[in-house]
Amino acid sequence: MNKQPVSRELFDEVMVPNYAPGKVIPVRGEGSRVWDQEEREFIDLAGGIAVTCLGHSHPGLVSALMEQAEKIWHLSNVMTNEPALRLAKTLCDLTFAERVFFANSGAEANEAAFKLARRYAWQHTGPEKNEIIAFKNAFHGRTLFTVSVGGQPKYLEGFEPAPGGIQHADFNDLESVKKLISKDRTCAVVVEPIQGEGGVMPADEDFLKGLRKLCDEHNALLVFDEVQSGVGRTGHLYAYQMYGVTPDILSTAKSLGGGFPVAAMLTTTKIAESFVVGTHGSTYGGNALACAVAQRVVDTVSQGDILKGVAARSDKLRKGMMDIGERYGVFSEVRGAGLLLGCVMSDQWQGKAKEFLAAGIEEGVMVLIAGPNVIRLAPSLIIPEPDLDEALTRFEAAVKRVVGQ
């Protein structure tokens, strides 16, 4: 067994350099607190980028994993398994969905969603109806197809030629969609109810309702990417329920496994029929271990008191960050929904969000950024109130460090 010392320097020796991780290496976590190799403690407001929705080492998730680990880990998709079937039934019961496809990541769930939208149009209309309308500043994953649908050219640089048949409209601008949509060519409109990587930008309700109407009028499918906004993050199991706008296809991942890699694409029976045997697949999709853990996550998060608690925690965190922003002149607004919040840097501090993230680490609080101008917060949905209070105290100390007070 290899017991060599592990340090940040080892990353530079053995890992592909597409990431630039900080110096801290966390080694254990409990609830919303994390400890590094030197036993320094951090309060986690990042949640592994909106993933650890029930915190670290949640007893229920540990129990579900251990119970399934002693039964069966993996089967090929030549066979099904009990955890996958139970989870699919639960997701159908709790959402608009009638059919589920399991994958391993948000990008894979989106890849499946986009392929299904094209396949459905090909089957019901013809090959010319293949265009996807997405939105500038969106993010849907890092596969070549999903990064092409995402509206951020920087992620495509050096990987062209990109897949064709994709157009980008302006987020929250229905008129820009009307200029692009076509009954003959458009097969789907793809949107994040809250743009996550794009700066924690919520969609307007009228905008999403307008997209639903446009899709209905043009015989196109409405696809919601809820990879970041789903599984209780907004105080609703899925954000579409908050908006009262039902998509035809929905992708979910991140919080779905509470830290265990799992994802799903949800849709209706009629649309799902276009994925006949052999048209799409995934070796690990529907893995028994992943589905057993995700079942416990969904069973827990879907409880009414958990979802109500998200709203209360959101109010506290939003108010605390707004107060800090006003005291030190660092934020122009705090936007988002539930426990997916974006603190927008004021004019004076534009482009410097990463400085606040780094200072937060020094003060013992973990936050995220969403681009250079937004501090992103995505903590556990059940983060204790004392942890929130302490996190705000620590973040204020980080702000003082940056602004020089």
Automatic annotation (TrEMBL):
<protein>
    <recommendedName>
        <fullName>Acetylornithine aminotransferase</fullName>
        <ecNumber>2.6.1.11</ecNumber>
    </recommendedName>
</protein>
<comment type="similarity">
    <text>Belongs to the class-III pyridoxal-phosphate-dependent aminotransferase family. ArgD subfamily.</text>
</comment>
<dbReference type="InterPro" id="IPR015421">
    <property type="entry name" value="PyrdxlP-dep_Trfase_major"/>
</dbReference>
<keyword id="KW-0055">Arginine biosynthesis</keyword>
<dbReference type="InterPro" id="IPR049704">
    <property type="entry name" value="Aminotrans_3_PPA_site"/>
</dbReference>
<dbReference type="InterPro" id="IPR015424">
    <property type="entry name" value="PyrdxlP-dep_Trfase"/>
</dbReference>
<dbReference type="InterPro" id="IPR017652">
    <property type="entry name" value="Ac/SucOrn_transaminase_bac"/>
</dbReference>
<dbReference type="InterPro" id="IPR015422">
    <property type="entry name" value="PyrdxlP-dep_Trfase_small"/>
</dbReference>
<dbReference type="GO" id="GO:0042802">
    <property type="term" value="F:identical protein binding"/>
</dbReference>
<comment type="subunit">
    <text>Homodimer.</text>
</comment>
<feature type="binding site">
    <location>
        <position position="139"/>
    </location>
    <ligand>
        <name>pyridoxal 5'-phosphate</name>
    </ligand>
</feature>
<feature type="binding site">
    <location>
        <position position="142"/>
    </location>
    <ligand>
        <name>N(2)-acetyl-L-ornithine</name>
    </ligand>
</feature>
<feature type="binding site">
    <location>
        <position position="283"/>
    </location>
    <ligand>
        <name>pyridoxal 5'-phosphate</name>
    </ligand>
</feature>
<dbReference type="InterPro" id="IPR004636">
    <property type="entry name" value="AcOrn/SuccOrn_fam"/>
</dbReference>
<dbReference type="GO" id="GO:0003992">
    <property type="term" value="F:N2-acetyl-L-ornithine:2-oxoglutarate 5-aminotransferase activity"/>
</dbReference>
<dbReference type="InterPro" id="IPR005814">
    <property type="entry name" value="Aminotrans_3"/>
</dbReference>
<feature type="binding site">
    <location>
        <begin position="225"/>
        <end position="228"/>
    </location>
    <ligand>
        <name>pyridoxal 5'-phosphate</name>
    </ligand>
</feature>
<dbReference type="GO" id="GO:0005737">
    <property type="term" value="C:cytoplasm"/>
</dbReference>
<feature type="binding site">
    <location>
        <position position="282"/>
    </location>
    <ligand>
        <name>N(2)-acetyl-L-ornithine</name>
    </ligand>
</feature>
<keyword id="KW-0963">Cytoplasm</keyword>
<dbReference type="Pfam" id="PF00202">
    <property type="entry name" value="Aminotran_3"/>
</dbReference>
<keyword id="KW-0028">Amino-acid biosynthesis</keyword>
<keyword id="KW-0808">Transferase</keyword>
<feature type="binding site">
    <location>
        <begin position="106"/>
        <end position="107"/>
    </location>
    <ligand>
        <name>pyridoxal 5'-phosphate</name>
    </ligand>
</feature>
<dbReference type="GO" id="GO:0006526">
    <property type="term" value="P:L-arginine biosynthetic process"/>
</dbReference>
<dbReference type="GO" id="GO:0030170">
    <property type="term" value="F:pyridoxal phosphate binding"/>
</dbReference>
<feature type="modified residue" description="N6-(pyridoxal phosphate)lysine">
    <location>
        <position position="254"/>
    </location>
</feature>
<keyword id="KW-0663">Pyridoxal phosphate</keyword>
<comment type="pathway">
    <text>Amino-acid biosynthesis; L-arginine biosynthesis; N(2)-acetyl-L-ornithine from L-glutamate: step 4/4.</text>
</comment>
<keyword id="KW-0032">Aminotransferase</keyword>
<dbReference type="InterPro" id="IPR050103">
    <property type="entry name" value="Class-III_PLP-dep_AT"/>
</dbReference>
